[in-house]
Write a structure and sequence with these properties.
The complex is a heterotrimer of chains A (167), B (376) and C (102). Chain B is mainly alpha-helical and 376 residues long. Chain B has helices at residues 3-8, 12-44, 60-70, 81-99, 116-124, 127-137, 141-172, 177-182, 189-192, 194-207, 219-222, 232-257, 271-295, 301-329, 333-356, 366-371. By secondary structure, chain C is an all-alpha fold. In chain C, 57% of the residues are buried. The chains are: A mainly alpha (167), B mainly alpha (376), C mainly alpha (102).
């Protein structure tokens, strides 16, 4: 019982924070709402009893990704002389229309489909040993490719952002 | 205990009592850490430190806390109100969560998690968020600079920290902090993995913004960094978080590297001995950190970053690789320990040689020529 | 207990909010944040399916790990591009970076 109440509270928090990300009028506030939203999704993973993914979420999203975003905000913020720019374009109503249609479709599909093999209410705990076995045995090759991808992205980011003498 | 059980399947009353005990202990420790730091640093500098408030100045921490509570709480007009006001509390929450996962004696902590070590560094990563919010919300250039410096430094040093701890976790074969402590009955891991310990200590100094890595809060450069605009109770929240993090990291290091409650005689002498062992070991680590602060000068920003990316990360990955080889081939732990000691000696020796080398003083121009030092 | 549909609906709402953000925002960093929301919704979906439908193989969990790794790589690269853009045009507005349209 208490689990359901907590779930609804956390889910409402996640939705509210995500709405804050796309609606807020300050970039800094949007970033902070994003942190809240990502942490909330991490808490939702706890309800699914996969604490490994929840901790990965906190570590990668809560720590690294949002910090990168905040750092970029600090580096790209207009000073006192800069002109204030509108954060939302004139196309926003159409975007809202598309998003609403998409949401209706997705929710309709999610609710109407009878998912095969649904175990019912309580999810089964997936131990970290099983995740490790799946990651390194069944999906070993994609894992290594992923490592290479990260390395390439890392080098690429340095090359793109590096300050050259002419800049 | 898995994470879900810890959150949903527990008796709440038991958890609340444990949390209250840990928080009370933390408050006392933090108050006396501020006093202890002033005393220790003063002794290193041949001063006396606080002596007037109470016997030997023992009530100095209480007096400071009272003074901070009575001070006016100032908020700059161009500060971002909510960001500014919530930032200090957000820096404190992760530290508190970490304290909830640490074992103080056999099977005694607020909660003993199966993924305890992973939990500790996942949650500590969130620490940066509060610092960045303080930097962005203060509406002050110095605070912003301090926030940028802190963010760059903390995400960089988190990598060697995590990798060095993973090397130990590989040997232990578990992430459960209690099991890791129990495993060190005959020898603490610092004897087997001294190199990992060195990397861990360096990265912790940086994560805590302690000297010589204290450039985000450097008074002489950016007048206090990200908390320059804070005063009164909010400023003291930052201080509380900082010292609580110092203590939490020390207990964490004591559990992982120094044997925690287990080494020596942990099982034989009962829980009070285990508690004393944990606290004494953590205080030894804290003393070491104070000692480093009293000894080493502050690094420059570029030196700090290049030390992390060009030295620490490579060494920590090499350590991970060596540990993997030893585990794969099943070589004996003594050989591993010898290799590790050699690695630690070589690493520290290289740093020392780099530090004492004479800078080139030929072909200098301008003020550098006059002073006879090489430009940075 | 919380049924699977709840997670799916939550994920659909998050995804739609992300789509709205991507379509309507003009600041590049904000667009990136909305993309993060969408990726998060997807990995929430994967994990929910893995825990509810197929806990024995943990495929969805592995997918979620990959999604998070790709998201990290993507954020690093995209922010590098944003910083570059800002340095060239002193604005992080995506509408102004339209030279290729001519």
């Amino acid at each position: 019982m208490i689990t359901e109440v907590l779930w609804w509270i956390v889910a409402a928090g996640v939705v509210g924070a995500s709405a804050g990300v796309v609606l807020s009028r300050s970039v800094v506030h949007a970033a902070i709402f994003l942190i809240l939203s990502l942490a909330g999704v991490g808490a939702i993973y706890l309800f699914l009893t996969v604490e490994f993914i929840a901790l990965v979420q906190f570590l990668i999203y809560g720590g690294a990704v949002t910090v990168l975003i905040l750092l970029a905000l600090m580096l790209t913020r207009m000073g006192a002389s800069g002109r204030p720019e509108p954060l939302t374009g004139a196309q926003a109503p159409f975007g809202a229309l598309v998003a609403a249609a998409l949401m209706a479709t997705l929710i309709g599909v999610a609710v109407a489909t009878a998912w095969p093999g649904d175990l019912g209410g309580s999810p089964t705990a997936i131990s970290i040993e099983r995740i490790g076995a799946a990651l390194f045995q069944n999906y070993g090759a994609p894992f290594i490719i992923m490592a290479a991808l990260l390395l390439v992205a890392f080098v690429g980011a340095i090359v793109i952002a590096r300050q050259e003498d002419g800049d | 205990m898995t994470f879900g059980e810890a959150f949903f399947g527990m008796s709440w009353l038991d958890a609340i009592i444990r949390i209250v005990i840990v928080v009370l202990l933390m408050t006392v420790v933090v108050v006396y850490l501020t006093y202890g730091e002033r005393k220790v640093i003063a002794r290193f500098q041949m001063r006396l430190g606080p002596t007037r408030t109470g016997p030997a100045g023992l009530l100095q921490g209480v007096a400071d806390a009272l003074k901070l509570l009575c001070k006016e709480d100032v908020r700059p007009r161009n500060a971002d109100r909510w960001v500014f006001e919530f930032a200090p509390y957000l820096t404190f929450i992760p530290v508190f969560l970490v304290l909830a996962a640490l074992p103080f004696a056999r099977d005694w902590g607020v909660r003993n998690l199966a993924l305890g070590m992973f939990f500790v560094f996942a949650v500590l990563g969130l620490n940066i968020v509060g610092v960045l919010m303080a930097g962005l919300g203060s509406g002050n250039k110095y605070a912003l600079l301090g926030g940028v410096r802190a963010a760059a430094q903390m995400i960089s040093y988190e990598i060697p920290l995590v990798v060095a701890l993973l090397a130990v976790a590989m040997l232990a074969g578990t992430l459960d902090l209690n099991a890791i402590a129990a495993m060190q009955e005959s020898r603490p891991f610092v004897l087997v993995q001294p190199l990992a310990f060195v990397i861990f200590l360096t990265a912790v100094l940086s994560e805590l913004h302690r000297a010589p890595f204290d450039i985000p809060v450097a008074e002489s450069e950016i007048v206090g960094g990200y908390f320059v605009e804070y005063s009164g109770i909010r400023w003291s929240m930052f201080q509380l978080a900082e010292y609580a993090a110092l203590w939490a990291f020390s207990i964490f290091g004591a559990v992982v590297f120094l044997g925690g409650w287990q080494f020596p005689f942990g099982d034989d002498w009962g829980w009070w001995w285990q508690l004393i062992l944990t606290l004494v070991k953590s205080l030894l680590l804290i003393l070491l950190i104070f000692w480093v602060r009293a000894t080493l000068p502050r690094l420059r920003m570029d030196q700090l970053m290049s030390f992390c990316w060009k030295a620490l990360i490579e060494v920590s990955f090499a350590l991970l690789l060596v540990n993997g080889l030893f585990l794969y081939f099943g070589w004996s732990e003594i050989i591993l320990a010898v290799v590790n000691w050699a690695g630690a000696a070589a690493f520290l020796g290289a740093i020392y040689l780099r530090a004492i080398r004479k800078p080139a003083v030929e072909n200098l121009v301008g003020a550098y020529k006059h002073a006879g030092v090489s430009p940075p | 207990m919380v049924p699977l549909e709840n997670y799916l609906v939550l994920s659909a709402i998050l995804f739609a909010l992300g789509v709205y953000g991507v379509l309507s925002r003009r600041n590049a960093v904000l667009v990136l944040m909305s993309v993060e929301l969408m990726l998060n919704a997807v990995s929430l979906n994967f994990v929910a399916f893995a825990a509810h439908l197929d806990p024995d193989r943990a495929t969805g969990i592995v997918f979620a790990v990959f999604v998070i790794a790709v998201a990290a790589a993507e954020v690093g690269l995209a922010l590098a591009i944003v910083i570059r853009l800002f340095r060239n045009r002193s604005s992080a507005n995506v509408d102004e970076a339209a030279t290729l349209r001519w």
